Amino acid sequence: MYNATTPHCADLSSPSYVNFTLSILILLGILISYLPQHHRIISRRSSEGISPYFVLLGTTSGTCAFANILTLPASQRDLACCRELSGFDCAAGLLGIAQVGVQWVCFTVILLLFLLFFPTATPLAPPSQPTKQPSFRTAFIVFGTCILHLILVFIVSAIILYRVPSHLTAWAHTLGILGTCLAAVQFLPQIYTTWKLQAVESLSIPMMCIQTPGSFVWVGSLAARFGWEGWSTWGIYLVTGVLQGCLLGMGITFEVRKWKKRKQGGEDVDGNGHAGDDDHEGTRLLDNER
């Protein structure tokens, strides 16, 4: 589709080692930032406190972002250049795509863990503090919707890429706008859930502490690589960084409040009246299979 023998490829053949190092650090940072969230769900054996709609919007937004960067003309040119570049130069040129891909994979793992460790039994709470947990049916619908969305996006992308490539730029920007819209509201259900529970539960504060400032560094890196032409790619992470910062501030506030209660000799309870952080775990899904 693109001629690999172009000035653009010549530029990629002489990568900046400073930019390459920064891109590698961002890639590793994205991967490391999600590990606390994966570990927290697995260690608690519960995804309680994580909004299913947060998972739905985050996964579909990530899918749109990954498909967007794969279909951008700039990415297509980079991929075409790999036919004539060395392995190192090609890898350096594709680090922007790799970053978005790793982010998508990591959030998809959260989707899988959310379903796998979905609490099937609502913990007992005082009558004055009733809790309403989402049903497993809701969790399964979220999972199925994410998978269906993934299949449809990549089928449509492949058809446009190979059948009507002249519409590829419009499709890439459509994905970017859709992903940005989903990202813009992604954290709202989680903010509501966390506020309602007055506790972070299975949500990881270390993950947000890494990702919130990291998202702005990532925005700068992607903007430097793709420029204004790639606004639909880095705009997603600018929006999510701001909203995640709001959720982080809320989570820290609740954790500090709980720490102060413990320090003052009060009962170790969360905002819902549950004793302890590990005593009210929902039963793991697989442990309750018939």
From TrEMBL:
Residues 275-290 have a biased composition (Basic and acidic residues). This is PQ loop repeat protein. InterPro entries: LAAT-1, PQ-loop_rpt. SMART domains: CTNS. GO terms for cellular component: membrane. Keywords: Membrane, Transmembrane, Transmembrane helix. Residues 264-290 are annotated as: Disordered. It comes from Lepraria neglecta.
